[in-house]
């Protein structure tokens, strides 16, 4: 798959001297959904703002659909739709006037049929003549998306699209993002909400302290870094893990009634057979067992806590 956005050696130092991005290299593939994860202040919004021409880079180059975002700003920006975190639209305007105006900003010829489709897809058509100020928070979010789509961009950035929205709107938005991807739009979303990345993304990028710690296919990432756990409910509680088992990755939980064995899901030798044999030899019986896999959330927390560097190696 070819790249639609190419980011090379991108750094940003704000006037305060704070370095928000450090030599970021990233190729975003045409037609993918890329989720950028990272703790508060990691640099996600700075990255998006540079690609969208809102913040100047200190170093490095970015092209969007072949256009340099500094030298060829207008052409690059016309390819991009941005859904920001905050609504900064004129509250006294109607929904229709707002999206029509947004389209005009990019020099696109009027196309009421296209704008109608966008509003209908976002369940906003009934509200087209309502003033923005009269809309609920969820509806205002939809207006932000409609504005971003008004000029038919090939690339859509969503900055924290579902922060503070209710479950229903979140599901609607996920559905809508998937439909957009099916229509060929490349989508980059930032989120704090790991379930969102797990649900939606083809690839995951993790940013921490201005560095792109990793970019990986979601399934590969989960397979590579995910651990599995085998949980055994013991017949009799244990006070401590017997010395004979000390070489295994075991933990006691639930006041000694549960034994948890963590193993690498990638290896063929899980060690489960050996564990069960040794438990049998020691006369430790269990009444139930089940295995589970780590979620993306656990993987992510582990990565950021590890500083990311080990994970990248
Ligand atoms: N105009 C600015 N001047 C100085 N520092 C800034 C400026 N804008 C952002 N920063 C700093 O750069 C860092 C990265 O901010 P950024 O908004 O890119 O992070 P983020 O990953 O998007 O975080 P969040 O999820 O909280 O929005 C933060 O420490 C922030 O305080």
From TrEMBL:
Keywords: ATP-binding, Nucleotide-binding, Transport
Pfam family, one: ABC_tran
Domain of life: Bacteria
GO molecular function, one term: ATP binding
InterPro entries: AAA+_ATPase, ABC_transporter-like_ATP-bd, ABC_transporter-like_CS, ABC_transporter_ATP-binding, P-loop_NTPase
CDD domains: ABC_DR_subfamily_A
Residue ranges annotated for the ABC transporter domain, each copy included: 5-234
Gene3D superfamilies hit by this protein: P-loop containing nucleotide triphosphate hydrolases (3.40.50.300)
SMART domains referenced in this protein's UniProt entry, alphabetically: AAA
Annotated coiled-coil segments of the chain: none
PANTHER family associated with the record: ABC TRANSPORTER ATP-BINDING PROTEIN (PTHR42711:SF10)
Protein name: ABC transporter ATP-binding protein
């Amino acid at each position: 798959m070819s790249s639609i956005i190419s980011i090379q050696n991108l750094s940003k130092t704000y006037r305060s001297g704070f370095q928000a991005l450090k030599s970021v290299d990233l190729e975003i593939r045409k037609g993918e959904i890329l989720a950028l994860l990272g703790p508060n202040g990691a640099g996600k919004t700075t990255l998006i703002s540079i690609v969208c021409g809102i913040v100047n880079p200190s170093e490095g180059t970015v092209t969007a659909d072949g256009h340099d975002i500094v030298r060829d700003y207008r052409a690059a920006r016309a390819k991009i739709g941005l859904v920001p975190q905050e609504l900064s639209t004129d509250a006294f305007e109607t929904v229709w006037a707002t999206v029509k105006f947004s389209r005009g900003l990019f020099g696109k010829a009027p196309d009421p049929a296209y704008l109608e489709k966008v509003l209908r897809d976002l369940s906003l058509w009934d509200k087209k003549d309502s003033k923005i100020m009269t809309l609920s928070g969820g509806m205002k979010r939809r207006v932000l998306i409609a504005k971003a789509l008004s000029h038919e961009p090939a690339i859509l950035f969503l900055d924290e699209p579902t922060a503070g929205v209710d479950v229903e709107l979140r599901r609607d938005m996920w559905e809508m993002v998937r439909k957009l991807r099916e229509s060929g739009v490349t989508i980059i979303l930032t989120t704090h909400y790991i379930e969102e990345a797990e649900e939606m993304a083809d690839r995951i990028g993790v940013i921490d302290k201005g560095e792109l710690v990793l970019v990986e296919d979601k399934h590969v990432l989960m397979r590579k870094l995910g651990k599995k756990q085998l949980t055994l409910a013991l017949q009799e509680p244990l006070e401590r893990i017997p010395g004979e088992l000390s070489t295994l990755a075991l933990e006691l939980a639930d006041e000694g009634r549960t034994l948890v064995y963590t193993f690498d899901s990638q290896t063929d030798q899980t060690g489960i057979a050996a564990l069960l044999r040794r438990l049998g030899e020691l006369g430790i019986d269990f009444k139930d067992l089940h295995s589970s896999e780590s979620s993306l959330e656990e993987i992510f927390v582990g990565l950021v806590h590890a500083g990311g560097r080990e994970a990248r190696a």
